[in-house]
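<derive_structure_tokens>
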Amino acid sequence: MAVDEPGPDDPHELDSGRSESEEERADRNLSDLLQELRVALPGVQVLFAFLLTVPFTNRFDDLTRFQEKLYFGVLITVALATVLLVAPTIGHRILFRRQQKEYIVTISNNLALIGMAMLAVSMCGAIGLISDFIFGATTAIVSTAIMAAAFVGFWFTGPIIRRAKLPPRSGPTRAHTDD
């Protein structure tokens, strides 16, 4: 007697160790991702709001040409980070009830990773700008390098090294994203 294979909606244990269907997994993954973005977005918004006010202060005229260019680069980078970190929510709204959750999760994960990288670049740029303005080039270089190393180490290198040490994913996979 043959054993029936579980269908796409039947609960089965995936490589997560949970007994859930692929749709339930996609729901959980999207919920987790959106919750993580809710943590990151206030910081991005505060940085962006701060940067928007800077040109209207009296001391903005004291910036060197380099500092003005750095300011503009930081402003654009934090705006791009905002676009990338909000995009998953917009994509979910546009594709709502179109059976595209796995696609949304995959794309949103990539957008979030790139958005967080842009946020790290923005924050390093802001630290460089403020340090250069207050203390000079040497302090700006040192403080920016330390913060860049912290971002790379804690946000990316640590998790990437851990991921490389994990066994390959097992369990059902989807060759398509049309659920």
Q: What stands out?
A: The chain has four helices and two strands. Residues 101-135 form the longest helix (35 residues).
